[in-house]
Design a protein that fits this description.
- The chain is α/β, with parallel strands linked by helices.
- Helix content is about 40%, strand content about 20%.
- Helix 3 packs parallel to helix 4 (about 140-150), helix 3 packs across helix 15 and helix 5 runs parallel beside helix 6 (about 205-215).
- The longest helix has 20 residues, at about 165-185.
- The N and C termini lie far apart (about 55 Å).
Amino acid sequence: MLVVGNGRLITRNPALPFLKDGAVAINGTKIAKIGTTKELKEQYKNAEYVDAKGGIIMPAFINTHEHIYSAMARGLCIKGYDPKGFLDILDGQWWTIDRHLTLEQTKYSAMDTMISCIRNGVTTIFDHHASFGQIDGSLFTIADVAKELGIRACLCYEVSDRDGMDKARASVKENADFIHYALKDDSDMIAGMMGMHAQFTISDETMELAAANKPAEVGYHIHVAEGIEDLYDCLKKYGKRIVDRLMDFDILGEKTLLAHCIYVNSHEMDVIKETGTMVVHNPESNMGNACGCPPTMELVHRGILTGLGTDGYTHDMTESYKVANALHKHHLCDPNAAWSEVPQMLFENNAAIANRYFKAPLGVLKEGAAADVIVMDYVSPTPLDETNINGHILFGMTGRDVVTTIANGKVLMKDREVKVADVEEVYAKCREESAKLWKSING
């Protein structure tokens, strides 16, 4: 047993949203009880106790669009790289990196990313991987790291024709093999999807191959209309918009996750809504790539299940919360935009998306839910309760305020010390492998 107490408890459970001096009792992988610190300490006298020291106790964060393969890009300068647009960014940087990644570099990219997730209170990720330098076994390598570090992960490989049909076939096989493996895993910590890059890099033949190899229990994780070039390509080649092409290949549905959706129109939103397809918004990445601002507020208002991701740009979900809040106010010239929509995406919709792949309730502290709990070192200078906690997170907290991270009942970090890895040793290996990668890229 484990009791986390002496904190202001934010549950995200409407039946009991807030306790001023709250505590969470954890038994195994699930939450056993919610109550006051006094109640739970008396009831579970022999439990290990984690003292929140007056900080915030809340559900751990969920990231619904990550890119582990980008981890070793930090500080990288690629010779001759001078992008003039989004396609130049893809080919000149991201595809260049993934074409050189070895399995060992994929492993340490995952180690770096997941340690950062732990430090920022993120315990569930949906990762979209690419390592065309070494495809076979890449998802299994990432899954091994997730198991070692205690992160809940839904993984897929980025199918694409960009490096030829042999690699496209290998990508489909990696997805299919991993999906079958994940479906047999009973830990409720690993899941798989059929990953796809974007329709402009995927032929009809490859679309059909992916469909033929995708088990019925899962959906697709695909980039959609991230750049205007993707839309132009689809209109020119197929005489239809992107969502319609995906609909024709039966890609849409309740298990499918569409990343970005910047250049979708009203008709496409109707199709996304009618099929129950999920969407994930990645604000920093869209801004950093100069791709544009998606109609995210309209997607949310239409009732489309829209979550918040980082696209590998950061692993701090509070950062994405802050950026999305400012982006949509600026884009819509509306000071009232995004106040409710973005926290709904982060705290409600991300959990709903995750629970289409994982069984235990996520993103909430209540009896029977997954024991994914974080403690944040935040003592507010103004009143705080369930009615204004989002404002405190938005303007007062960052991911680095997380001091304790618990996932599936296991303490991954306590008092800012990561318990599941020797961080110094891991980072030394990351530096070694990234130096090899950079030399491989630049010659």
